[in-house]
Design brief:
By secondary structure, the chain is α+β, with helices and mostly antiparallel strands. It has a single domain, classed as Gcn5-related N-acetyltransferase (GNAT) (Aminopeptidase). The protein is built from four helices and five strands; from the N terminus they run βααβββαβα. Strands 1-2-3-4-5 form a five-stranded mixed beta sheet, sandwiched between helices. The longest helix is centred in the N-terminal third of the chain and has 16 residues. Keywords: Acyltransferase, Transferase.
Length: 159
């Protein structure tokens, strides 16, 4: 599979919102409000200070000359300032690969792309993500890419 990673743009908002809904249902059995998630994705795509979305595109040559590209996965990056390190953690969020494209290196390609961007960007101290405790497949995937348990639990107060 030939993959190219690109940043998302406004034309991708509908697809990214659909994938976010699918991911929320699949991983947490949460049904997201379609208007809210659409507005949230649109705000993130429009403002890189909020988020940056990346899309993996599967490229194939058809009839020997025409190249077609199909979106096959995504992830979103956000930033968290660390006073301890005087730099930014980049958080990987909203990871989604449709089932028909899983176990084909799509997430690994997305991860390697943002990892290289992070290493090439002054002031970035590392990558983080959160994962459901019981999602053993995801844990193995992230660990295979060099990530490890940071020793924290995630707490929240949702409003």
């Amino acid at each position: 599979m030939t993959l190219r990673i690109r940043e998302a743009h406004a034309a991708d908002v509908e697809l990214l919102a659909q994938w976010a809904q699918a991911m929320a249902w699949e991983t947490e059995h949460k049904k997201l409000d379609p208007q809210t998630i659409h507005a949230g994705v649109a705000a993130g795509v429009a403002d890189p200070a909020k988020a940056r979305y990346f899309i993996a595109m599967h490229e194939a040559t058809v009839a020997g000359h025409e190249t077609i590209a199909e979106p096959v996965g995504t992830l979103m990056l956000t930033r968290e300032w660390s006073d301890w390190r005087n730099g930014d953690w980049w958080w990987i969020q909203s990871v989604y690969v449709p089932e028909s494209h899983r176990r084909q290196g799509v997430f690994a390609a997305l991860y390697r792309h943002v990892e290289q961007l992070a290493r090439d960007t002054d002031g970035v101290v590392g990558l983080r993500l959160y994962v459901e405790r019981d999602n053993a497949v995801a844990h193995r995937t992230y660990e295979a890419l060099g990530m490890k348990d940071a020793g924290y639990d995630l707490l929240e107060a949702e409003f």
